[in-house]
Amino acid sequence: MSVGFALLGLLERGPRHGYDLKRSYDDQFGHGRSLHYGQVYSTLARLLKNGLVEVESEPGDGPDRKRYAITAAGVTDVERWLAQPEQPEVYLQSRLYTKVVLALLTGRDAADLLDVQRATHLKHMRELTNRKLSGDFADQLVCDHALFHLEADLRWLELTAARLDQLRAQVRKENR
What positions does the domain Transcription regulator PadR N-terminal occupy (predicted)? Predict the structure, then answer.
């Protein structure tokens, strides 16, 4: 996800301080990956430079605090970004595939590698399922997305384990 577009979208609801944006981002999208304040302010500086946000100062007893507001150009950018479909993430050369092939090329036991990976995936799925049960609706959607991807990985692990002898023979043949 683009942090800049997320911050712009949050600003469409009204002007906010940087720390309010960080909190809203973490609540809506952070889910285990909260933003650092430095990333929020550097992103806001870039958006300001590009004319997508403007600063509203708030005079007070202490130093001036900046509130950021989205500009018309910022709204247009968010609309354009939301209208563009995301390219599906196709994992044609995943690290997991690379590990399996390298294990076979180097004479290691790829079945052990697949078993360890399967156990890791299942553990992570249990954690996500527990998180989903105690989370709000947005957290449930995020967990569902991750769980479906992990399920697809598990199907690939099972298929690869079933075809391991065939893959081993092909790798040996190609490397003679």
Answer: 7-77
